[in-house]
Design goal:
Blueprint: H1 3-10, E1 16-21, E2 24-29, E3 32-37, E4 42-45, H2 49-58, E5 63-64, E6 75-78, H3 83-101
Antiparallel strand pairs: 1-2, 2-3, 3-4, 4-6, 5-6
Protein name: MmcQ/YjbR family DNA-binding protein
Length: 102
């Protein structure tokens, strides 16, 4: 996926807004982060706990947790990884964040 494809997908989800933070593309729902561009070719997705572990275990070719993100509820996604799994993770992050605001 590209960042444009990530944005196109996320903007189909209710309430998602695109912004730039420190020059990086990011997407929020209700003011809460869903995902943002990270290192070149990667995306940071706001998912933690069991969801994060499930993704990293099931798709280590697509998801990982660099040391700097271990203490955070975030997972790093390789944009060249499995697009369907990445869309699923984005949907889960969106759903989790919107429920916080409900």
């Amino acid at each position: 996926m590209t960042l444009d494809e990530v944005e196109a997908y996320l903007l189909t989800l209710e309430g998602v807004r695109a912004r730039r933070v420190d020059g990086r593309r990011a997407w929020y729902v209700g003011g809460l982060l869903v995902a943002r561009a990270d290192a070149p070719g990667t995306l940071l997705v706001r998912l933690g706990g069991a969801e994060r572990e499930r993704l990293v275990t099931a798709r280590p070719d697509t998801f990982g947790v660099p040391p700097r993100w271990e203490a955070h509820a975030k997972v790093q996604a390789d944009l060249s990884g499995d697009a369907a799994t990445l869309r699923d993770a984005l949907h889960r992050a969106w759903d989790s964040q919107r429920r916080v605001r409900a």
